[in-house]
Specification:
It is found in: Secreted, Extracellular space, Apoplast. The chain has one domain. Helix content is about 20%, strand content about 20%. The chain is built from seven helices and 15 strands. The strands form six sheets. It has a five-stranded mixed beta sheet, sandwiched between helices.
């Protein structure tokens, strides 16, 4: 889920007029949203439980994903994480475990690294593929809520600036291959969270941060809207009779974050400045490689049916493995096959 306005990479400081224009666009844009049980939707619980599709996974007849000549992340990616608010050590371990598993090719199949291979299929204008290597870099703890417990889209950039300019252990500045991941704890309210988005990605304004840095924000929905952003490990109260699935790592809020984090990192790699890979004519409303597959986790997925996934001996639901853990991660659009794909596909 991305936002508007492309700029050069890295960009010079923005003029005041351009800054005001971008600010007004940022406030007016509605991000592309795939299927989630949003409160305003009319949901039939029976359809969710027993819905089926032969081989949906998107359709090349209707999807026109194009390359718009912007940069993609071909150099080794380093993810710098900002832990905003109160986090348990166990929660950090789950998220780090997922990030570290992206490049771990020695994991059993279906693997997280197998999922990333689909992202690697995308290239820049020179034909160079997105890197195979994703490192976990320096981290910053903001346990005292430096910008309060209510954040806007723009104040998120100020949090990143604070982390990068801190007097002790500042995050390194890496405009070429760094990704900055801001994770907010379950007691932090973020603009549009739960009502329109569970996470989004964009790039920082030089006028705020001093650099153009690709970043993503993802919130922990455990206390605010688990039935939306941690679905299907939690279900909305307005859908009686629908039972949540058992999460594989025992933390519903963080479990929901994992798939959103994967979604945003895949899109950051293929469209870091919103001028590379996306469908649609208007970069202010792009549909990106993960948006095209929102809610699809296995073969046959589509509409409100997640597809065929795996159930472990303890009853937990997952579709891929990474670093000794199980995860449920949505698929992404495969530019070779022209439909959504993942490592647990039954026809591989």
């Amino acid at each position: 889920m991305s936002q508007c306005c492309a700029c050069r990479y890295p960009a010079p400081p923005l003029p005041v007029l351009l800054g005001l224009t971008i600010f007004s666009i940022l406030l007016s844009v509605s991000p592309v949203i795939g299927w989630r049980p949003w409160p305003h939707q009319q949901i039939n619980a029976t359809d969710l439980e027993f819905g089926s599709s032969k081989k949906y996974e998107g359709s090349s007849e209707f999807v026109h994903l194009k390359y718009h000549m912007g940069p993609v992340l071909t150099a080794n990616i380093t993810v710098h994480t900002i832990w905003y608010g109160t986090w348990q050590k166990s929660q950090k371990r789950i998220i780090r475990g997922f990030l570290n598993s992206i490049s771990n090719v020695n994991t059993k199949t279906p693997s997280v690294s197998g999922w990333w291979k689909t992202v690697q299929l995308y290239t820049d204008q020179t034909g160079a593929n997105i890197t195979r290597t994703v490192h976990v870099g320096a981290e910053k703890n903001d346990r005292f809520y430096s910008h309060g417990k209510s954040l806007t889209r723009l104040s998120i950039q100020s949090v990143i600036k604070s982390a990068a300019t801190a007097t002790t252990h500042p995050l390194p500045i890496n405009p070429q291959s760094g990704l900055y991941l801001l994770l907010t704890s379950d007691d932090v309210h973020v603009q549009d969270f739960c009502g329109q988005v569970c996470g989004f990605h964009y790039f920082t304004f030089p006028s705020i941060v001093g650099y153009t840095l690709p970043y993503a924000w993802v919130g922990n929905s455990a206390t605010q809207c688990p039935g939306i952003c941690a679905y299907p490990f939690a279900v909305p109260v307005y859908m009686p009779g629908l039972k949540p699935l058992k999460s594989p790592n025992g933390d519903v809020g963080v479990e929901g974050m994992i798939s959103v984090i994967a979604h945003e990192i895949a899109e950051l790699a293929t469209n870091p400045l919103v001028n590379a890979w996306y469908a649609g004519q208007d970069p202010s409303f792009p549909t990106e490689i993960a948006d095209l597959c929102e809610g699809i986790y296995g073969t046959g997925g589509g509409g409100s049916y997640m597809g065929q996934v795996l159930d472990d001996h303890d009853g937990a639901t997952y579709n891929m493995i990474g670093n000794g853990r199980r995860f449920l991660v949505q698929w992404v659009w495969n530019p070779v096959l022209n439909y959504c794909s993942g490592p647990n596909a039954l026809d591989q």
